[in-house]
Design a protein that fits this description.
The protein has 87 residues and is mostly helical. It has a domain of 52 residues. 80% of the residues lie in helices and 0% in strands. The protein is built from 5 helices and no strands. Helix 2 packs antiparallel against helix 4 and helix 4 runs antiparallel to helix 5. It starts with a helix and ends with a helix.
Length: 87
């Protein structure tokens, strides 16, 4: 993994970040429907959790130590589980 990460210069090049970005777009699209217009709390929580996945991947990548990146990936994974649970 370290060798592969050494080749990646920007978090935008990480496949996991790219997929998280797609997730954010899909969640925002989904939560524009009428059902979510009546449940603001659920809509906001879904959006926040999805953005958290993407943001934690980016923030972790920007950290100097590999262990920090792993910690942020763990947080991103937890946020992804939250999205799944809310759906």
């Amino acid at each position: 993994m370290e060798k592969d990460l050494a080749k990646v210069e920007r978090f935008e090049d990480l496949i996991c970040w790219q997929k998280a970005r797609v997730l954010v777009r899909e969640i925002y699209s989904l939560t524009r429907h009428d059902h979510f217009s009546r449940d603001f709390r659920l809509r906001d929580q879904l959006r926040s959790a999805a953005v958290s996945v993407m943001s934690n991947i980016a923030e972790g990548f920007a950290r100097f130590h590999k262990r920090d990146f792993i910690r942020f990936l763990d947080i991103a994974q937890s946020s992804a589980a939250e999205v799944s649970s809310l759906l």
